[in-house]
Amino acid sequence: MITLSEFDGKRVAVLGLARSGLAAIRALLAGGAEILAWDDDEAARAAAGDLARHDLASIDWAGVTALVLSPGIPHSFPQPHPAVVAARAAGVPIIGDIELLGRARPNARYVGITGTNGKSTTTALIGHILATAGRPLEIGGNLGTPVLSFAPLGQDGTYVLECSSFQLELIESLAFDVAVLLNITPDHLDRHGDMAGYIAAKRRIFAGQRPGSVAVVGVDDAICRGLYEELRRSPARVIPASAERPVEGGVYAERGRLIDATAERPITVLDLAQAPRLPGSHNWQNAAAAYAATQAMGIPPEVITEAIRSFPGLAHRQELVGMIGGVRYINDSKATNADAAEKALACYDAIYWIAGGLPKEGGITSLRPYFGRVRHAYLIGTATEEFAATLGTSAPLTRCGDLATATLAAFEAARRDGISGAVVLLSPACASYDQFAHFEARGDAFRELVGRLVRGEGV
To answer: pLDDT class for 427, splitting at 50, 70, 90?
Structure first.
């Protein structure tokens, strides 16, 4: 655990008592701080016990040193939390846990990864490469492990952090030694006001970089290409990464081969078919970015490529959870928007598609080019009628309501049809909050349902 001794004897407010908030409280208490904690959810307050006794919207902010804000709580759009308004009026700094980590362990190396899609996989892959190379590290952030739960690392250690746009907005002074931006497509616009606000939040991954820093930029979308051209005038070393085209001075994939063009002439370093847990061209960009980042950190290319081959993959990201009668069951619950679901739909030719939940702006209209791959769609949750209207007659569909009904219906159809190479794919293109606490719970439920089918127990 990190000890936040900077706040010894000082009063610190903590708003939001989920995993990151509770980890912040533990680290602050270990450092001798006095805590004022609150969560609007009564159950979360109950779990925090006596600590959650101060409604931060109505306290006297005089003498409070900082407000540590959970990234899930709005501080700008659509409307700032009342406690945020009160803290700002009192001139109290509003920061997040990643900023606190940077202050507590200033001598460690920091690698930050962001992007609309692919950041979890790329974060995990970079961590796997560094671990394979024997580097001391901690990995987490938006990926799962709260950063203030990490072990304290020194100059020989590296913190590998997946950073959401919400988290990046709460960083004041931490500058990443290696910063990776994979892609930007519309998402979370309700929290950032508009697309310009979202882009500005993502761009903060490069804030404060200096000579010796490294910026890895995916250049397969127009927004990031523009940012890449801007960053080339920055003091950092800027490396482009692509899954679509050769890039001078960067790392790219070409016909399934990973090419290192950072030296005088391009060199093929890996056949990506040898990395079975990184299926699809979208993962080629993840691999290219991870290769660029870790090579810039001094990891030998042969170590990087061996680690890419052995990468075990991540739960809920095109995770193979079962095989029944030659049909693969794929858990892609992390696909909470259409852009993420597209990556999975592009990988398979005969798909029994489980989709739906709480829809994002734009729904699945962008996925029309892939509807011909869908043998049958099984719709669940709030998005059912919207998705049914978009699918129209492009693919057969069934309104299933819930995940268990959809999984059983897809199993029965796939068994009946007997198509070689078919997949039952949970790739919802939706948030999970209408029926599940989070996408992990949705994916875990699917894994359990498939396990019952594998064991012949039914659902």
So the answer is: very high
Where is the domain boundary, 77, 95, 113? 95
C-alpha span between 38 and 133 (Å, rounded): 42
CA 329 to chain centre: 22
Reported as a pLDDT band with limits 50, 70 and 90, residue 93 is very high
Q: In this predicted model, what pLDDT tens digit does every residue of 117-174 receive, in sequence order?
A: 889 999 999 999 999 999 999 999 998 799 999 999 999 999 999 999 999 999 999 9
211 phi and psi angles, rounded to 5 deg: -55, 135
Q: Are 250 and 242 in contact, with CB atoms under 8 Å apart?
A: yes
Provide the residue type at 326 as one letter. G
What CA–CA distance (Å, rounded) separates 239 from 214? 8
The model's confidence at residue 392, banded by pLDDT at 50, 70 and 90, is very high
- State whether 305 and 340 are in the same domain: no
Angle, vertex CA 369, rays to CA 363 and CA 374, nearest 5? 85
Q: Are residues 9 and 114 in the same domain?
A: no
Helix (H) or strand (E) holding 37: strand 34-38
What is the domain range of residue 14? 5-95
Assign residue 449 a region (left: φ > 0; alpha: ψ between -120 and 50; beta: otherwise).
alpha
Q: Residue 154: which of 108, 122, 207, 200 has the closest Cα?
A: 108
Domain annotation covers residue 14: yes
Q: What is the rounded CA–CA span in Å between residue 212 and residue 53?
A: 46
Q: What tokens does 458 get?
A: 């039914």
Whether 129 contacts 303, CB under 8 Å: yes
Same domain, residue pair 170 and 296: yes
pTM: 0.85
Compute CA 417 distance to the chain's CA centroid, rounded to the nearest angstrom. 35
User: Of 49, 56, 52, which Cα lies nearest the Cα of 81?
Assistant: 56
Q: What is the spatial distance between Cα 40 and Cα 42, in angstroms, rounded to a whole number?
A: 6
Indicate if 235 and 381 belong to the same structural domain: no
CATH number where 23 lies: 3.40.50.720
Q: CA-CA distance, 52 to 44, in Å (whole number)?
A: 9
| pLDDT reported for residue 193 | 87
CB 275: neighbour CB atoms within 10 A?
A: 21
Q: Which residues does 319 contact at the CB level (< 8 Å), separation at least 6?
A: 313, 330, 331, 332, 443, 447
Is the per-residue pLDDT at 276 higher than 90? no
| Both tokens assigned to 405 | 């009904």
Residues 351 and 426 in one domain: yes
CA distance 367 to 365: 5
205 CB neighbour count, 10 Å cutoff: 26
Please return the burial class of 292, using the count of CB atoms within 10 Å of its CB with bins 0-12, 13-18 and 19+. buried
